[in-house]
Write a structure and sequence with these properties.
The protein has one domain. It starts with 7 loop residues before the first helix and ends with a helix. The protein contains 7 helices and no strands. With 163 residues, the protein is mainly α.
Length: 163
C-alpha cells in the first residue's frame, strides 16, 4: 500500500472481531512494521526494490519473530496502555507470535496484489497475487474495514463499560 495506515483497517477489524484469538497490539504493529523497508529505501535513496526481502513470507517471518519477542518483553507496559482503551488482554508468547505472523502475512498478501516488484515466495521470483484485485478494490476494502473496526470498537467499549 502506498499509504501504510490503510493496513490498519483489515488488521484492526480482524483483531477486534477475533479478540480472544489475537493479541491486538501485536496485530496492529505487525501489520505495518514491514513498511520500514520501503520507507528506508526512499529516505536513504538506496538502489534496492521498494518491496524487497522483508515483503516476502521468508523475510516477513524474521520480522514476525522479532516483533513477537519485543511485544512479549513489553506486554505488561503495553497492557497498561491498552487498558485505557478498554482493550487489555491476557497474552502468551504463543498468542503473540501467532498474531505477529498473521499481521505481517496479511500485509504481504495485501501488498502482493498491488506491486509487481514483490516476490512473496522469495527466493522464487514470481508474484502470483499481482493484479488479483485492483488498487481501488484494495483501498475500498481497507477503508471499509477501518470504518467497520471503529463501529466494532464502539460496541465493544459500550459492552465492556456495562459489565
Amino acid at each position: 500500500m502506498p499509504f501504510t495506515p490503510f493496513h490498519w483497517g483489515p488488521a484492526s477489524l480482524t483483531g477486534l472481531l477475533f479478540f480472544r484469538i489475537f493479541y491486538f497490539p501485536a496485530l496492529l504493529a505487525a501489520s505495518v512494521i514491514i513498511d520500514i523497508e520501503p520507507f528506508s529505501i526512499l529516505v536513504f535513496d538506496m538502489d534496492y526494490p521498494l518491496h524487497g526481502f522483508f515483503h516476502s513470507f521468508l523475510g516477513g517471518a524474521l520480522v514476525a519473530g522479532l516483533i513477537s519477542t519485543v511485544m512479549y518483553f513489553f506486554r505488561n507496559d503495553i497492557n497498561k496502555l491498552m487498558r485505557m482503551f478498554k482493550l487489555e488482554q491476557e497474552s502468551s508468547f504463543r498468542k503473540i507470535i501467532w498474531t505477529s505472523f498473521f499481521g505481517v502475512y496479511l500485509h504481504i498478501l495485501l501488498d502482493s496484489t498491488l506491486y509487481i516488484d514483490m516476490k512473496p515466495f522469495y527466493p522464487a521470483g514470481s508474484n502470483p497475487f499481482y493484479g488479483l484485485f485492483s488498487q481501488e478494490q484494495v483501498y475500498l476494502f481497507s477503508g471499509v474495514s477501518f470504518l467497520a473496526a471503529i463501529m466494532v470498537y464502539i460496541v465493544r467499549v459500550f459492552i465492556v463499560k456495562r459489565k
